[in-house]
Specification:
The protein has 162 residues and is of the alpha/beta class. It has helices spanning 2-43, 60-67, 90-100, 104-117, 129-138, and strands spanning 45-50, 57-59, 81-85, 124-126, 142-147, 155-161. It folds into two domains: 1-43; 45-161, Periplasmic binding protein-like II (D-Maltodextrin-Binding Protein, domain 2, 3-Layer(aba) Sandwich), CATH 3.40.190.10.
Length: 162
Amino acid sequence: MRSKKVKKIHGWWGIYRKKCKYYLPVLFLVILFSSVLLAQQVMSFKIVINKNNPVTKITRAEVSNIFLKKKPKWPDGEKMMPVDLVSTNPLREIFSQRVHQKSVSAIKIYWQKKIYAGTGLPPAERKNDTEVLVYIRNHSGAIGYVSANADLDSVKEVQITE
């Protein structure tokens, strides 16, 4: 009788172990792919401008120069008004790395030097995508960046070329 109880417990554990053998790798892959998709969504951004701006394409170097205020006007003569996300927003670090090829800290140092020298002020900052989009809608020369899944109602996405 005792051996049957032990066998039953062992039998239950054996079945559980066999199921885990197949389900755990599947569960691991589901979690892995979900996190990769989420990371891609978070790590992607779009460059957006006011819908009345005629520009449709822009290079990465031009975007960098605009946000460093090295390029003051659009081709039609309109004053450029870049808008950054606040430095605590994770998308700002991704934008800085991909566009400026520098960290947010390095960009902050750049602006501290400009401010100290009296030669410039950093772009306006907004807390999130919604605030960036409102700023761009309200300023004809505005340019900014938002997460890839942001609703671009009443603004225009600009294609980045190399």
